[in-house]
Design goal:
Elements: H1 2-21, E1 24-32, E2 43-46, E3 52-54, E4 60-65, E5 71-76, E6 83-87, E7 94-100, H2 116-126, H3 128-131, E8 138-152, H4 156-161, E9 184-199, E10 204-213, H5 220-225, E11 239-242, E12 245-248, E13 259-262, E14 266-269, E15 272-281, E16 289-296, E17 302-309, E18 318-329, E19 335-347, E20 355-369, H6 372-379, E21 385-389, H7 398-404, H8 411-424, H9 427-441, E22 444-446, E23 449-451, E24 458-461, E25 465-474, E26 482-491, E27 497-508, E28 514-524, E29 553-568, E30 571-586, E31 600-610, E32 615-618, E33 623-627, E34 632-640, E35 651-663, E36 669-680, E37 689-690, E38 713-714, E39 716-727, H10 735-740, E40 743-754, H11 757-763, E41 776-787, E42 791-798, E43 812-818
Parallel strand pairs: 1-7, 10-21
Antiparallel strand pairs: 1-4, 2-3, 2-5, 5-6, 8-9, 8-20, 9-10, 11-12, 13-15, 14-15, 15-16, 16-17, 17-18, 18-19, 19-20, 22-23, 23-25, 24-25, 25-26, 26-27, 27-28, 28-29, 29-30, 30-31, 31-34, 32-33, 34-35, 35-36, 36-39, 37-38, 39-40, 40-41, 41-42, 42-43
Pfam families: CarbopepD_reg_2, DUF5686
Signal peptide: 1-21
Keywords: Signal
Length: 822
């Protein structure tokens, strides 16, 4: 009996092994086709056999099959299209990767008296303050950022034969035809590693960019933008910013007004019950997401979450956007983000056009929360946000980056760096880059000289006829801190030469800019500009003009010296010494009509500016503002001095303006500008406030569009410009306008002004100008934005200041403009 017992036990263990030797193994992993993240607990089954199982928490599964099995493998999961793959002639072990596409699937709807999804959402919201990392006293971590740019929807064979791209055909050797349904070409890769910290009270942010890996680019401001300061997605926040638009988070305080929630299934992982939480938009056309999350029962902490743009979301040029985040435990009560991914497909010309894929991944290590060391770090920081870069941030070797990275590069990513290195070493590619830059920016380099922009070369107007212009400037090859620029223009009708010569000297650029600027110009003034502003002539200015508008021309000779100094914390000053001489040319009062005096003045001015946390993109010589989340305030104080350079006028001038752009999600955004000014002195019209009018049918956001240039003069004035971008607004309620992605807005502009009796008597002897006489000029407008994704139409009504003869006043106008926006 004992022998039989041992024999039975032997057969019990050996038989399965003998049986399995006669079977083949089919194993695989289920992943999201867009984010490449595992789809945990997906249902995997066979259509004919009827047997199946659930993939594990990493999306893995395996089956033992008889050789030659013929069946159809089916994979399904809530929120994804069902995947079907025929299986036949399987004579050996096989491994497959199954990529599920987001979209409509045949989901089972179970009706219940209790809405489990809404119940779970409320439970999550009850823990929101606890789990939102920005409610911690402080936290810090090391972040590794990686941004990859790929292309798809291209015909590689045809492009290889293109005579322009033929020398670079080797880049198509990197095409990936296995990772996704459609082949794509990995093209560009940048990396950064940084230390980041946050403090709740008083709110402060800090980031130090320790290293960036950008082949061929060494720019500090670009390195700063590669950090995580402006790239954090907080799913527990009320809104999530995508393409500079606020989308309603599924954990917004009012998310139940925007989403439907459900709990289709539950799973057990490591002895813990996990709830599958699914959210879908209630109404199409709103800026919402669709997606799901895995939530721990009892604690209601999110383990993983995936978000995709909702159907008919009003975003341009973006076919898909996906966000994935994963959280890990830091202690018994806090889970902290450990990894996030952001993906976007950009399509400019339609569904079948060339598509750019952006993939940003971030991993977080060395996470610390609620630490005194972080408190001590912020004691020395006296502004809300501070981003610093290490010395030589972009000069680390490839071997150094092997130690910096939180994970190793994939085969595709290694190929990108090899390709970029090869391209940068090719003279042919450098020439190609030069031509593309000339077409897109208007400028081209030749040695130490810059030519352009080309769009200034030819223009035309009533006084000059055809205007020809040619510009020259220097580049850093001439001098890294000194920039010299000049242009010469000639009119075929007035037969006069015009031009400018100027020089900038950036004594220091960082941390606080100190710059000198000297300039001499003599040219047609295309718009009476405020101090520091420059008007430009270019070929695109040949727009349709309003009928029956008399265009006015005046020549300006301008000599100036400027000193700009940044003091940090958003404060800057600019000191001006300016000598101007005006010469009226056409349809403006001649010199004798302004009391016989010459139109010459000398002015000193001090401009004070406060732009807290303003961000800039630094160029070789100039910086370009990316705006601030706080209002920007400017005040200018000017003094005119008679007797200096034949100047005939003593006066004082002060002007102030405040501008800001405020997001009022989910109701869009509001931008405004409040301005006021005063001029003390009896002066000719060129030295008073000429309120900006618009003589063409191209909409000007900084002008009064139903007012003409030189229509109104003031020596005291105040005004307000407001523009409210609603977003889809009423257009989301109809299918056609929702699909067209039209957007709604309204504008309001008001101006109050007056002119002293002395200035009125001096300047209006021939009735050229008007004054508001303490009355209010007002325009209101509305319109349709985002027509064909680029056009905007404004309908403007002039509500006040309708002087007689009333038939000469335009009460209504239609204006067009265009802009590229997401």
């Amino acid at each position: 009996m004992r022998i039989h017992k041992y024999l039975f036990l032997l057969l019990f263990f050996v038989y399965p092994l003998m049986a399995s030797a006669q079977l083949v193994t089919l194993s695989g992993m289920v992943q999201d086709a867009f984010t490449k993240e595992p789809v945990n607990f997906a249902s995997v089954s066979f259509a004919l056999a009827g047997n199946g199982k659930v993939a594990d928490s990493a999306g893995n599964f395996s089956f033992y099959l008889k050789p030659g099995t013929v069946d159809t493998l089916m994979v399904s999961y809530v929120g994804y299209q069902t995947f079907k793959e025929p299986i036949s002639m399987l004579n050996g072990d096989a491994q497959i990767i199954i990529s599920l596409q987001r979209g409509t699937s045949n989901e089972v709807v179970i009706k219940s008296k209790i809405n489990k999804g809404l119940f779970l959402w409320r439970k999550i919201m009850s823990k929101k303050k606890l789990y939102n990392r920005y409610n911690q006293t402080n936290f810090a971590y090391e972040a590794y950022n990686k941004l990859e740019i790929d292309f798809k929807n291209f015909k590689a064979d045809k492009l290889k034969k293109n005579f322009i791209l033929k020398p670079f055909s080797f880049i198509f050797d990197n095409i990936d035809s296995t990772s996704e349904k459609e082949p794509f070409l990995p093209f560009f890769l940048v990396e950064s590693i940084s230390d980041y910290a946050f403090q709740k009270n008083t709110k402060k942010y800090f980031e130090n960019i320790k290293a960036t890996n950008i082949k061929g680019i060494n720019n500090e401001s670009i390195s700063k933008m590669l950090g995580v300061m402006n790239q954090n997605v907080n799913v527990y926040g009320n809104y999530i910013n995508v393409m500079d638009k606020d989308f309603v988070s599924p954990f917004n305080d009012r998310a139940d007004d925007f989403y439907n929630f459900s709990v289709p299934d539950t799973q057990i992982l490591n002895g813990k019950k996990i709830l599958h939480f699914v959210f879908r938009p209630k109404h199409p056309g709103q800026n919402t997401f669709e997606g799901d999350a895995m939530v721990f029962a009892g604690t209601y902490q999110i383990q993983k979450i995936g978000l995709n743009l909702g159907k008919d979301a009003n975003v341009n040029f973006v076919d898909r956007v996906g966000i994935f985040q994963e959280f890990i435990p830091i202690n018994d009560s806090v889970y902290f983000i450990s990894r996030d991914k952001f993906f976007a497909d950009f399509k400019i010309l339609g569904k079948q056009s060339l598509t750019m894929i952006g993939r940003k991944t971030t991993s977080y290590k060395n996470i610390i929360i609620n630490s005194d060391s972080i408190t001590n770090l912020f004691k020395a920081q006296n502004i809300e946000e501070l981003v610093t870069t290490a010395k030589g941030v972009n000069n680390f070797s490839d071997s150094s980056w092997q130690n910096f990275r939180h994970d190793s590069l994939s085969t595709n990513e290694k190929a990108i760096y090899a390709t970029v290195d090869k391209l940068n070493s090719m003279p042919t590619f450098k020439k190609f880059q030069k031509r593309i830059k000339f077409l897109t920016t208007g400028y081209t380099n030749d040695g130490n000289v810059v030519f352009g922009p080309w769009f200034n070369w030819v223009s035309a107007n009533q006084y000059e006829g055809t205007r020809l212009r040619f510009d020259l400037g220097t580049n850093p090859g001439f001098h890294k801190k000194i920039y010299i620029h000049t242009y010469l223009a000639y009119g075929t009708k007035d037969k006069q030469f015009k031009g400018q010569a100027e020089a900038y000297w950036n004594i220091t650029k960082t941390p606080n800019r100190f710059r000198l600027h000297a300039s001499y110009s003599k040219d047609i003034d295309n718009g009476i500009s405020q101090i520091g502003e420059v008007s430009q002539d270019n070929v695109f200015s040949l727009a349709i003009r309003k009928p029956n508008i008399t265009r006015k021309f005046i020549r300006l000779q301008d000599v100036r010296f400027e000193i700009l100094k940044d003091f940090g914390k958003g404060f800057s000053t600019e000191l001006f010494f300016i000598h101007k001489q005006y010469d009226p040319l056409l349809n403006l009062p001649a010199l004798k009509t302004v009391n016989g005096t010459t139109l010459i003045n000398f002015e000193t001015a001090l401009k004070l500016r406060f732009a807290y946390l303003e961000q800039y993109l630094e160029g070789d010589y100039f910086r370009y503002s990316l705006g601030s989340k706080y209002p920007i305030i400017e005040a200018t104080f000017s003094k005119g001095m008679a007797g200096v350079g034949n100047s005939a006028y003593n006066y004082h001038r002060v002007s102030v303006n405040i501008k800001d752009n405020i997001k009022i999600s989910p109701y869009g955004s509001v931008s405004y500008k409040i301005f006021a000014g005063k001029v003390d002195g009896t002066l000719p019209y060129v030295f008073l406030e000429n309120h900006p009018g618009n003589d063409i049918y191209y909409y000007n956001g900084n002008a009064f569009n139903l007012m003409t240039r030189f229509e109104y003069l003031s020596d005291r004035y105040a005004g307000l410009n407001v523009e409210h971008h609603v977003g889809a607004g009423l257009f989301r309620f109809t299918n056609i306008t929702r699909k067209l992605k039209w957007r709604q807005f309204w504008t309001g502009k008001a101006l109050w002004g007056s002119l002293s009796n002395d200035n009125l008597k001096l300047n209006n002897t021939v009735g050229t100008f008007k004054t508001l006489n303490n009355k209010t000029y007002m325009e209101l407008g509305t319109g349709i934005d985002n027509i064909f994704k680029v056009f905007r139409v404004d309908f403007i009504w002039r509500l006040t200041a309708n002087e007689r003869p009333i038939q000469k006043v335009s009460h209504f106008g239609v204006f067009g403009s265009f802009q590229l926006q997401f």
